[in-house]
Design brief:
single chain; 109 residues; elongated; 4-stranded antiparallel β-sheet; alpha+beta
Amino acid sequence: MKMVITIVQDKDSLRLAEALVEYDFRATKLATTGGFLKEGNTTFMIGVQSERLDDLLRLIKKNCSSREQMVSPISPMGGHADSYIPYPVEVQVGGATVFVLPIEGFHQF
């Protein structure tokens, strides 16, 4: 058994949640916040049998696509102003960050 911790952008979370239900994967959904863009994320904690892990990873990849987004950098607070870029820049957002952990035991009470 594996524990899959998946962090996705909020824009992808509803689509992924619906797909998890459709394909009978059980997940706990947590609201989280990203550090770089300071935007909302959703973290899914998914317990999965080892033989279904590849199916789950394909499902996550299919429903969480990366894309380009224009962002306005936050001005430096106490930092060096010479490294501050005062105009919007294009960054890649979305996709999924996935951690797969081994599980020693699973108990449901």
